[in-house]
């Protein structure tokens, strides 16, 4: 019989005078209801047992406790609440020790701070990252952390969401002792017995006085000013500061009550829903159908074809992932430039004091420049990043087919070309896949993994393994013009052009988009990327454009003047003397006016709200088409693409989550209204219509694959 043995979420056992309370809730010991109830019962048990003099709280597996169970947010609360559990731990009349290994995050650190003593192993990670989920520490963290580590340091920890190492935690006062070792139970037991031998007393964090309140309040005021500037519409950061102000000004229990009230406000905010969706969606995109069937191929040595901005960025990513890289360029000058592009990145880090010359030398020892394809005969994986032209890429793949060993993975970094056609240029289409990196490739998190028709499943899993090694966020995409991201971008960019020609200035549109939470608007992005890039694509596609489709020529007029954006000092904006922030340009407005007049358009006013309704409706409608056609596996894959690669405001969860929150019926009604002006462009996606008819949302399609 193979009956599954159910292990309780919290187990207790006596070791002499110590009650060992161990938490078993894989994978990360999140504080679900069973864990909370178990912890509460264990403390009650310890307090009632005269033979117990100390309580040791430890986590089983890889973490101490990674926080509240994020999956419970938004559902009806089930007692006991975490604040109640933490207060009960702190109130215990036996000394309570937390032995921390792995993650002690959010509620996990709050449990530890409620204990009377804390010992950490070197690999411990301590933090209060609730802000990344639109929350604040809601189980006493905002009241206890300032008492343990000081008001300023605690507030900075909560505002940043950063994880501290055990060493940093010790220095900050969050832990009392750091012990080399790997066994939290043995370490914790030894520490508890040491405390008992020294007759250590119960020591409650709530009893620590916050001294120098005037200084603390002044620090908080500075942090509030800074946060108001940086938080860009985020709700919870300023609430965190309010909680800490309460910790300084109010008795402990009143501070806790304030924290509870503000935590509830955060919990009920749409930002929390958006950020929690983003958290799970980013983990979900790595789960793909191929994973069940095919283990990744081995790879250690790779080749990058092309040393331009993209090739160099990918090279840095690969080197940072510990891989051995050969870069191929066509001649001595080009390969020298390629190497210089790679070194520039590391030299930048050295200049900022974030890397040593020795570390750079160790990394560069894994890098080989070459102008001969024959030198990559033994590599396991190749990423081509040459000029974006189908014939050029096909020629490269013919060469790769000639030299590479059987079973080598051959990837192209095209951003919109037909990868099936590239694969068919080789005799081994089963080994060919798309890896669409985003610029700068060593920084941007998104990696679209584009899956052509004939690719073998283990090539797909290899690509996902590479993404993991490179610490990228992978999204599986199908082959079409622009894949997920650039295909949808082309459509909402078109919507922005229509809004401009119909009456809003590019500056008003950018402002509305920033107001929504983006760091930049679409015309600023064009200026940053270089207007010539889009212009070249438009010229190439002119012959195949639907003659009935509306086409806005403003950007072409701007490019005809040689105004390609920041690099030429002007584009949609003016950049006097190399300024990085653009100024409105009356000459651009005159061009827009002239184009309107040419088309007989009488300009009208657009509110920021209407601009965003159109911009988002275009994005969501194309997103629905991308899901409907199977280009994206699920709506959440579209969300992650935009969160990780296109600056979509994380607190809104991604375009599809945003549409769910607005209501799909409202989005569809907008599209139908706009279609009265231009039925060709505003053609509602069949999937969107179907979901509205069935009363469902996009999230209903976010099933595990
Ligand atoms: C909080 O505590 C609020 C309180 O202040 C107040 C309450 C009143 N819950 O990331 P990984 C899952 S807010 C549920 O791939 P890693 C995750 O989805 C919370 N599930 O592993 C994944 O599932 P699957 C504050 C969670 O080793 C699996 O665990 N805490 C939770 O790369 C493995 O995760 C945080 O914000 C959770 N809390 O990284 C910490 N955490 O296998 C959030 C993880 O089905 N967590 N899962 O895809 C993390 O930062 C990382 O997961 C961690 C491990 C560093 C722990």
Automatic annotation (TrEMBL):
Q: What is its main location?
A: other
**Reactions catalysed:** a (3S)-3-hydroxyacyl-CoA + NAD(+) = a 3-oxoacyl-CoA + NADH + H(+)
Pfam name, any one: ECH_1
| 3-hydroxyacyl-CoA dehydrogenase C-terminal domain residues | 482-575, 612-696
The source's domain of life comes to: Bacteria
The leader peptide range reads none
Specify the pathway.
Answer: Lipid metabolism; fatty acid beta-oxidation
Keyword terms: Fatty acid metabolism, Isomerase, Lipid degradation, Lipid metabolism, Lyase, Multifunctional enzyme, NAD, Oxidoreductase, Peroxisome
* UniProt entry tagged with the keyword Isomerase: yes
Please list the GO biological process terms of this entry: fatty acid beta-oxidation
Keyword Isomerase listed? The answer is yes
Where the record annotates domain 3-hydroxyacyl-CoA dehydrogenase NAD binding, the positions are 301-477
- One MF term from GO for this chain? enoyl-CoA hydratase activity
What InterPro entries does this protein's entry cite? 3-OHacyl-CoA_DH_NAD-bd (IPR006176), 3HC_DH_C (IPR006108), 6-PGluconate_DH-like_C_sf (IPR008927), ClpP/crotonase-like_dom_sf (IPR029045), Enoyl-CoA_hyd/isom_CS (IPR018376), Enoyl-CoA_hydra/iso (IPR001753), NAD(P)-bd_dom_sf (IPR036291)
* Annotated localization: Peroxisome
What family is this protein classified in?
A: In the N-terminal section; belongs to the enoyl-CoA hydratase/isomerase family.
Protein name from the UniProt record:
3-hydroxyacyl-CoA dehydrogenase
